[in-house]
Design goal:
Layout: H1 9-29, H2 39-54, E1 57-58, E2 76-79, E3 82-84, E4 98-107, E5 110-119, H3 125-143, H4 151-164, E6 168-169, E7 175-177, E8 184-188, E9 205-208, E10 211-213, E11 219-221, E12 228-230, E13 236-238, E14 241-245, E15 250-252, H5 264-267
Antiparallel strand pairs: 1-4, 2-4, 3-12, 4-5, 6-10, 7-8, 9-14, 10-13, 11-12, 14-15
Helix pairs in contact: 1-2, 3-4
Bound molecules: 2-amino-4-trifluoromethylsulfanyl-butyric acid and cobalt (II) ion (2 copies).
2-amino-4-trifluoromethylsulfanyl-butyric acid (MF3) binds near residues 76, 207 and 226.
Amino acid sequence: MASILIKTAADIEKMRISCRLAAEVLDYIAPFVKAGVTTGELDRLCHEYMVNVQGTIPAPLNYCPPGYKPYPNATCISINDVICHGIPGGKILKNGDSLNIDITVIKDGYYGDTSRMYLVGEPSIQTRRLNQITYECMWIGISKVKPGAYLGDIGHAIQQYAEKSGFSVVREFCGHGIGKSFHEEPQVLHYGKPGTLAKLAPGMIFTIEPMINAGRREIREMGDGWTIRTKDRSLSMQWEHTVLVTETGYEVLTVSPDMPPPPEWIISGETPQGNPA
Ligand code: MF3
Ligand code: CO
Ligand code: CO
């Protein structure tokens, strides 16, 4: 098993830059996300911004892990019952849709990876609730990050909160170490048991990116070789940050001027109401 790299101060400086740039793409695209636009157009706008404005490389484009075909676009855009790896194209956004835009850039050889949900027009109460719970799941996971804690603590807290809310956690995809490569050790599961798996140490950098389904957790793979949907066609959502383990806790690296603020209970240092953690 490959080991978890501990990043140097110089690595961390570069990661702050690549991660901030990834988050800034999500700021940039927000005003374009509305009914009538296609996901292909959103991808094109992000791609142009990355290459022409930021001087970053879109990491997904032609990304080809073993067993996959090269990914065809600069971004992943996953709508409604698409869990992840949605391929942008001719799909036109309509009122009530929910979509995840997942941005990974490369700057100076370092990767930054983050995704947010966007809700179109007037979303239903169910849509807003799944979005809020998924966002809180990500932050509950982040709040567990500190030296001496275990990866299993993160997964357990996310799973408890999602399932207590009546939702389910996707098992087939997970967060990941990131640095000079897109996906490295460790795997960051969004379910599990406290006190299990790797112990966290300062200088580790990984993503936390829970995928939460309104219905059952099972997935379905589409014929395009990438798109993943819920098997029961229920709504699925995801939020993602890249996080550094510091000497005392964590630093979220994928920060930008317009990023949604952490939940109030993070700011106040408490746990969310009813969070078993
Ligand atoms: N950005 C995704 C992640 O969070 C990975 C996308 S791989 C791609 O890990 F090829 F689909 F882009
Ligand atoms: Co991502
Ligand atoms: Co990721």
